[in-house]
Amino acid sequence: MRAASAPGKIILTGEHAVVHGVPATAMAVKRHIRALLLEDDSGVLRWKDPFSGRQISYTHAQLQQRSELLALRYDAWQQGHLAIHEILPSPTDLLVYSVAQALQGTDLPGGDLTWRSDLPVGSGMGSSAAFIAVLLRLFSPEVLSAEALMHQVHFCERLQHGKGSYIDAAAVSLGGCVAVQGKNLTSLASPALAEDWYWIFTGVPLSSTGECVDRVRQQFSHSEIWQAFAAIARQWHTATVTERSELVRENHRLLCRLGVVPRAVQALIQQIERLGGAAKISGAGSIHGEAAGLVLVWLPGLNPAALNLPEPMHWGVLEEEVQGAVSFRL
């Protein structure tokens, strides 16, 4: 049996801004997607789709054919013939494409693929990158370095996010804390976040990361707002806890100006600020609906239980995962 695991991530600074050349910092978190492959000689790969719950099976030829179709759809998006959310007809197509990219002409090991996850899908916690990293680790014929894995994850993830950044791919591949600016990557020492840092899942956004990134690019490509994001990024690593909380508040106000923080999430963050805390979305947010995926929270002396969160919101303690995506045999 083969197995693989990849962590999720949370963006500390620079969501959206990273796409426009501003440094962003992310941290891998102790929430994971895990997969187990029980091999056989059938030449058919079978799994229960983690998105729809349907049973799915593919031969090598079917994987390759589907992968080529998805590549053509990406080209069509680049040429303006498809919207970003139309590249992938279904979420599972991203998994199919990732397996095909991992194999790179080698034989498909048949068998049953099973999933286990405590990483919320569509939360802004890097689930797409984690799914891809797990599959690349499982099916690549060679053991990829962490940096090579990062580039492969980013290549596959373009079908989901369009012209996205390396931030998710870097965090889930390398683990720990990473800073990304364009294609430049720096592994950082632990950000030493105190026990008062949490995450809140506000629900699955109605708009995808790609849609949000496209909307912001259309409206703010030449805006001076990115200079304000850059100032936050420069101060983050040397800031005290109190200074970081103020940076989070400023980051939140900038994200509100971008139009990616729904009103219900703004109300939640106002409640946190009234209690002496600070919070912001961590991820693309949403341009539709009232959910925005993940929110990064600093709440000194309290925890999010004090907020009486409505369903389906839930929360957890922010914990760093120093290990990136790995594979192993059982």
TrEMBL record:
Enzyme Commission numbers on file: 2.7.1.36
Compartments where located: Cytoplasm
Protein name in the entry: mevalonate kinase
Chain ranges of the GHMP kinase C-terminal domain: 245-286
GO molecular function: ATP binding; mevalonate kinase activity
Keyword list, A-Z: ATP-binding, Cytoplasm, Kinase, Lipid biosynthesis, Lipid metabolism, Magnesium, Nucleotide-binding, Transferase
Similarity comment text for this entry: Belongs to the GHMP kinase family. Mevalonate kinase subfamily.
Statement: the UniProt record of this protein carries the keyword Zinc: no
One Pfam short name: GHMP_kinases_C
Recorded GO CC terms: cytosol
Annotated pathway: Isoprenoid biosynthesis; isopentenyl diphosphate biosynthesis via mevalonate pathway; isopentenyl diphosphate from (R)-mevalonate: step 1/3
Swiss-Prot/TrEMBL GO biological process terms: isopentenyl diphosphate biosynthetic process, mevalonate pathway
EC main group: transferase
Residue intervals of the GHMP kinase N-terminal domain: 95-176
